[in-house]
Amino acid sequence: MLKKGDFIELDYTGRIKDDKVVFDTTSEQVAKDSDAFNPKFKYQPVIICIGESHLIKGLDDALIGKKPGKYTIEVKAEYAFGKKTPELLKLIPMRLFAKDDIKPFVGLEVNVDGTLGIVRSVSGGRVIVDFNHPLASRDLIYDVEVKRTVTEPVEKTRALLELMSVPFEEVDIKEGKVVITTKTKLPEPAVKGLVETIERLVKVKSVKFKTEEEVKKEGKKESEKGKESKTEEKKEETKEKKKEKKEKTEEKKEDKEENK
Asked: Between residues 152 and 226, which one has the greater pLDDT?
């Protein structure tokens, strides 16, 4: 039975209940059949951690207690993208759009102060923009397949990094210690949050982020230490051989003295 904190590999297709329109899918064929195909998108199963809001709440909660397999799950609007609220319908002066050389029309998607919205009406010098989620107040249907549970720490770590859009090159784990290699150094506040999340969910002893340059330098130092160690070993070996040779020479001398 699946429980909170489990990592799973999941295939899914989300449809609006009323008109069966596909709004999200991990299947390339379903996307093409639904005229929703995006050539820039990589269609493949996703790995998520149950209970960590990697999915909408209704779908996340519905997976708890399930076993790997196929399911059709209905998610009510309040547990999907919420109900529409009048407070998120904003009246914006036309001059603000004109300043950026934008001619608003009904249905245009706009970005206002970092928030996406849809133009609902244009009248005179006023534009009403809806900042509710496009799927707010819509009941949804998900066809899902839980393909397997994921147990390998490396795979879990890689999945979390991908979900959080963190660029990385390699993930290595030895004796419960994770080393994540990146091309460039990540900001300290971001690293702190990532370390805490990975340690908590993957249950490892420690997590360190290192750049490729840092890994190369450490590898060079280890190589030099190895060479020094081999040199010392050879010196010790030479000393031992000389000592043995000296002991044999002395033994021969003693034998000659005894034979006289």
From this structure: 152
Pairing of strands 46-49, 126-130: unpaired
Q: Residue 174: which H helix or E strand, with range?
A: strand 170-174
Q: What is residue 47's predicted lDDT score, i.e. its pLDDT?
A: 98
Instruction: Give the pLDDT confidence of 245-259 residue by residue, as tens digits.
Output: 666 666 666 666 655
**Alpha helix positions (H), 25-93:** 28-33, 57-63
Q: What is the CATH number of domain 86-130?
A: 2.40.10.330
Interatomic CA distance for residues 130 and 84, integer angstroms: 9
What fold characterizes domain 152-227?
GMP Synthetase; Chain A, domain 3 (3.30.300)
Closest CA to 10 of 112, 209, 146: 146
Q: Which residues make up the CATH 3.30.300.170 domain(s) of the chain?
A: 152-227
In this structure, CATH architecture of domain 1-81+136-150: Roll (3.10)
Rg (CA), the chain: 32
Q: In degrees to the nearest 10, what's the CA dihedral of 16, 55, 63, 18?
A: -10
3-state secondary structure of 249: helix
Q: How far apart are CA 47 and CA 56, in angstroms?
A: 15
Which residue is it, tokens 């609902």?
120
Amino acid identity, residue 171?
V
Whole-model pTM: value is 0.77
Whether 169 and 181 have beta carbons less than 8 Å apart is answered as: yes
Instruction: Please give the structure tokens belonging to residue 208.
Output: 């360190």
